[in-house]
Amino acid sequence: MLALQLCTPLAVNAEEPDFYAIRMELYKKVEATTNIPWYYLAAIDQYERNVRQSRRDLPKADGAIGIYFRPEEWAGLLNPNLTDENPASIQFFDGIGIDGNGDGKASFKNDEDVLHAFANYLLSYGVDHDNLKIGLWNYYKRDKTVGIIIGKARIYKHFGRLDLESHAFPVPLRSSYSYRNTWGDARGWGGRRIHEGTDIFAGYGVPVRATSYGIIEMKGWNRYGGWRIGIRDINNNYHYLAHLSGFAKDLQVGQIVEPGMVIGGVGSTGYGPPGTSGKFPPHLHYGMYKDNGYTEWSYDPYPHLKLWERQERKKARKHK
Ligand SMILES: [Zn+2]
């Protein structure tokens, strides 16, 4: 009986739809008809998907595309029929919805229609970087959102692919380090009232590495964090690494990073004017924040660190 149970076949990967391939095909299709580069479309789509995942007031995406339009946005504010799929009446009521796949219907449940609708909106501004930025600003009315989307577009363009989900542990696994779950502890060396992060203790100068594909959003000195760096990943997460001994050579704000790339060293900087260090044992403060389109909040990085550590160990074993 037990043997039979063990023989139950596992889910076969090949049967799952390859969302990356489906999405890329849609982006390229829309790029071909609008001249809007695919990586901007990918960035908007990914931003909206992430926002939907982190908010309860928005329905979950059920197709390949994550962009969400409210019914009144799609059909037009004064349209008496909020589920209108007639392209002509939607246009009459100034709705954003269009028929992108040529089936005669403008459906907000159709991936192609939805992606085309956003692209069509942007087209009224222009297809070069500056005009796309203006179009995004007028749509979202939030600098941070525009910044996050532009950052994602640069990451996608740089790597030329959508699958950017792998991770690395922030310090090399062969180095000697220790950490434990201290989420919410009243005291920590993070410089906040409640400790918003995990402290990874390691020797001074041990390499600190990027954990995700992302873009450097902030780099510099702060009274509490010392030398610190902020990286925005492809999923609207902000990774905050503090108390560094220094930064990797030539590292710049706006630079694109990938998992495992050395960005600095473990240190003990902070709690004083620039250059102050040594007031506590060397460690890396690792914080994670999530943006949901309105606000950004801190959440516990510990389970993620544990996962990345495990994944990297597994990968290393495989390559031996
Ligand atoms: Zn800390």
Number of helical runs? 9
Beta percentage is: 15-25%
Main β-sheet: number of strands, strand sense, barrel status?
Answer: 10 strands, antiparallel
Total number of distinct structural domains = 2
Distance between the termini: 36 Å
CATH H level of the largest domain: which superfamily? Glucose Permease (Domain IIA)
| Radius of gyration, taken over Cα atoms and rounded to an integer in Å | 23 Å
CATH topology tier name of the largest domain:
Glucose Permease (Domain IIA)
Which whole number gives the mean pLDDT?
91
Share of residues in helices = 25-40%
Order of H and E elements: HHHHHHHHEEEEEEEEEEH
CATH architecture of the largest domain: Distorted Sandwich
Number of strands: 10
Structural class: alpha+beta
Instruction: Enumerate the spans where pLDDT stays under 50 for 5 or more consecutive residues.
Output: 1-13
Which ions and ligands are bound to the chains? zinc ion
Shape designation:
elongated
The CATH C-level name of the largest domain is Mainly Beta
